[in-house]
Amino acid sequence: MGEEELLTRVKYVTDFNHERIGQELTLQAIAVKNTSQNPDIFAECVKKVSENTDKALIYCSFLPESLQAALQVSNDTPLLYAATKETWEQVGNLALEYNCPVVAFADNNLAELKSVVAALQSMGPTNIAVDPGTHPENLSATLNDFVQIRRTSMREDETLNCPIIGIPGAASDPMEEVMAASMMIDRFADLIIFNNIDMFGVLPVITLRQNIYTDPRRPVAVEAGLRTFGEPTKESPLFATTNFALTYYTVASDIESSALNCYLLVFDTEGLGVEASVAGGQLDAYKAKEAMDSAKVAEIVNHTKIIIPGMAARISGELEHLSGWEVMVGPKDSSGIPEFIEKRWEQN
To answer: What confidence tens digit (pLDDT) does each residue in 239-275 have?
Structure first.
């Protein structure tokens, strides 16, 4: 890899930021692999990467001499990859000297992996991760090792109670890499080293990570209140939705793509979607009226019309009675908002 390509990849990882349902998804680290097997070349590469990123670094080499050369030219605290049954003492000493976390590696041999971890622990390092080896051509064996490591940790043997590293980047085909990464995340991998930086490969993996590590007991929610889109006036329509993040951002996206000038009142439904919140009582006419009063919508627009989601149609009558406003039942799917505005709002 040439210097230009190297720095391009470093910049991509450093600047990567994708917003999904209100959360910014990023990449956490850059792994530098000692492909040349030359300590001097590796150290020079590490220095260039270190000078061009603020991300955490992973030094990947099975040669202790290369790891040492890289440590001498940088001020980082990298993850050292990796200590094996042949090099555990040398790599362990480097981890102690430079106060770095370290990876224990044994290829498809959990007994050997356990012995390497135990040897490192006896030296003093406590920040140890484990890599049981990645075999894209036999991924079931790799995933089985991941599961066995976790099961061993649950049986009061804490030797392998360490973060697990998977390397889907070992796959030669980009789609196989994505599938391997997804299955590793599903099977307890704490860190994966990825080679593919194309969006079609990165996006599904970070989306899966976000979904898995979102607490299902606490739905992803946005702040309730009044939002404006475009340059609305007092004559502009007033929509309403819930504060479930996926619902809100879908509605917001459809409004923005339609270039509408409007207001959007976001009800506090404890992070639930429209249908679920109406059924569960998190959204009813009284709470909708309270949200309207709190946002002072009567002072924002000079009409008395509010457009509620089609899935909330059952509260329309009672809300009209409580608020004195005309409650228009909008489309069940926010993609129908432009047509609704054209056929119902503008004609009205």
So the answer is: 999 999 999 999 999 999 999 999 999 999 999 999 9
Residues 188-247 have pLDDT tens digits of 999 999 999 899 999 999 999 998 988 877 788 999 999 999 999 999 999 999 999 999
Tell me the CB-side half-sphere exposure of residue 31, using CA atoms within 13 A.
21
Q: How many CB atoms lie within 10 A of CB 348?
A: 10
CA distance 169 to 167: 5
pLDDT single digits (tens) 284-306: 999 999 999 999 999 999 999 99
Report which of 77, 119, 118, 117 is spatially closest to residue 97, judged by C-alpha positions.
77
Task: Please name the residues in contact with 216: beta carbons below 8 A apart, sequence gap of 6 or more.
Answer: none
Q: What integer is the mean pLDDT of 128-152?
A: 94
What is the amino acid identity at position 174? P
pTM of the model: 0.83
State both tokens at 345: 């709002």
Share of the chain above pLDDT 90, in %: 88
Per the document, the length of the chain is: 348
Domains of the chain (ranges; CATH) run 3-212 (3.20.20.20), 225-345 (3.40.50.11600)
Report the distance separating Cα 164 and Cα 129, nearest Å: 6
Q: Give 43's Cβ-side CA count (13 Å radius).
A: 16
Per DSSP, the residues of 202-267 read: HHHHHHHHHHHTS-TTS--B---EEEEESS--TTS-EEEEE-BHHHHHHHHHHHHHTT--EEEEEE
Buried b (16+ CB within 10 A) or exposed e, 162-175: bbbbbbbbbbeeee
Helix (H) or strand (E) holding 290: helix 285-295
Q: List Cβ neighbours of 142 (8 Å cut-off, separation of 6 or more).
A: 108, 132, 133, 134, 135, 166, 184
